[in-house]
Amino acid sequence: MERHVLGISGGRDSAALAVHMRQTRPELKLEYFFTDTGKELPEVYDFLGRLEGFLGVPIQRLNPDRDFDFWLREYNNFLPSPRTRWCTRQLKLLPFENWVRPDLDAGVNIFSYVAIRADENHREGLTSTHPNLQVVLPLRERGIDKGGVIELLEGAGIGLPEYYRWRSRSGCTFCFFQQKIEWVNLMREHPGAFEEAKRYEKNALEHGSPFTWSDRESLDELAAPERVAQIESDFKIRQERAKARRRPNALRPGEDPTLADLLEDGAGCLVCHK
Q1: Other C-beta atoms lying within 10 Å of the C-beta of residue 209
Q2: Is the dihedral of CA 170, 27, 62, 57 positive or negative?
Q3: pTM of the predicted model as reported, rounded to 2 decimal places
């Protein structure tokens, strides 16, 4: 027996992979899943709805048995960080493992399709933790790069997630991989979520956590008007430099680089952001 599963992160690459598989392997009975932490951006849910409309099947929501608040207490109120990524393990990987483990142990061969592009030589697929689990990388195998991903989504009438207008990645509202300008944008786009992130940060600091959401700077400090102005000024300089270096796109000659173009550095979590 076999199962074929494809994880949707809420980002462009995994959505493009779903489109590609639907177009090239329509006979394959793929199970699409999204591991929902309950702390996702509202734009992510909107994008999932558009993708479901194209696929014609629901994307299964895998919800962790314990929520973010439970695991925060378990980790002594220490915030997750690039060095201690307990959120990825407990809220993303564990629900997936619990979902497929019974079939794996029963001898079912499970093929997991992962959205690593052909232009991402620095990335590797998640290492299989079970002999019956096989990771497949169709975008890399077919030579599909970032431009190809965008073409797939536009051709399917899905387009990009709305958050790419102000943010470079999917994932939780308070993901620690965000850069300074993205925190400023979150404060403007979703002030309630920004305030919630501040509350989590204050609680963590009161319990001795060495980490803040943004490296070496609390959200209170980051939100000060003079600091916001500096962050925006620094980002504008980076944007102009990126525009000067960028090769013109014949199809979109006046297009400005998006935040994803400027901030995509390969540091993000493969589980959450693809």
Answers
A1: 19
A2: positive
A3: 0.87
